[in-house]
Amino acid sequence: MSLLSIDELKTLVEHSQGLCVSLYMPTYTRGAETRQNPIRFKNLIKQAQEYLQEEYHLDRNDAVNFVQPAMDLDKEEFWQHQDEGLAIFVGDNFFQYYRLPLNFNELVVVSDRFHLKPLMPLLTGDGEFYILALSQKEVRLFMGTRDTIKEIEMENVPHNMTEALQYDEPENSLQNRISTSRGGTNNSFQQTGVFHGQGSPDTDDNRRNILQFFLQLDRGVQDYITNKQAPLVLMGVDYLLPIYQEANTYQHLLEDAITGNPKTLGAEELHTQVWPIVEPYFTQSQKKAIDQYQELVGVGRASSNLKEVVSAACYGRVAELFVAVGKQQWGNFDPQADQLQIHEQPEPGDEDLLNLASVQTFLNGGTIYAVEPEKVPEGASLAAVFRY
Questions:
Q1: What is the assigned CATH class of domain 6-115?
Q2: Could you tell me the pTM of the whole model?
Q3: b vs e for 263-292, b when ≥16 Cβ sit within 10 Å of the residue's Cβ?
Q4: Which of 12, 27, 28, 323 is the most interior residue, by most CB within 10 Å?
């Protein structure tokens, strides 16, 4: 299974029956380094088994049986289809895994709930964006994050104008689609493009054919955009871009685009050019949240104190949470007594308190910014703006 939906994340968050094993690892997708994938995987499985035996007192057979669903993945075919990172979740009568565009650190956590903080960048500024590379002869869709990019194979979508025109829509249907696309969203691009000069597609039927192609493409592409909040960036020669903008009904198509022939750029070059366009989209709300934190910290409406933030998250008071990726703080929190215990090393019954704050903020509708440690206010491991 690949990309993680919000509903699937909620399922993982709400699962709290018995022991929960969470495994994260980076995965290589090409070259000799791919041989490291199964080796890393087996080492993590071994760590999980040892932890189940030593800390939770399972005998060896029970520990092996508990993680067996994960071990069953260890086949050559499985390792041939990877992304940047692999996340595996094993519980009592529960098993799920995800190939994700996140370069995880190796991590094994055994607790009474799944450890989900490494997934939080999917909800924040390291989330997903899409690139639609347009030409009349070939269309490609890419999904990227801050650090990764991959092409998405699309089925049942016209990949060129010839394919699109095989399914020519009747005139009335086409006119209705054009009218709908112009007014069907809040997108500022929904207006008719006007073109002048030599080679303008307005001078012949070519523009109408391109528009029909893009109307079909608009419908098909959205089936492959799994995160409906993710920005979409176009790349294509200049006269194609306004035509697609006219056909577009996707709410988060960005105004800025890459002008040029898509065939001249590989995936990595596309990523290099597009990231400066999408980064402000991701960081705008984060910057606003930091400013708000600075305004409210002096009046008790914000804090970077671990106990205050964990408690507030569990009681549904956190509106915005900053949490450091790649760090853990072990301990446990008793919400009834409002008491927090912190341990340098994980003990039985402990969990990562940063994960606890993230999960509770997510469940209570707060916004999470999973960022590099240096981007958390006041140099803390986590910080929050409170609702009240």
A1: alpha beta
A2: 0.66
A3: eebebeebbeebbebbeebbbeebeebbee
A4: 323
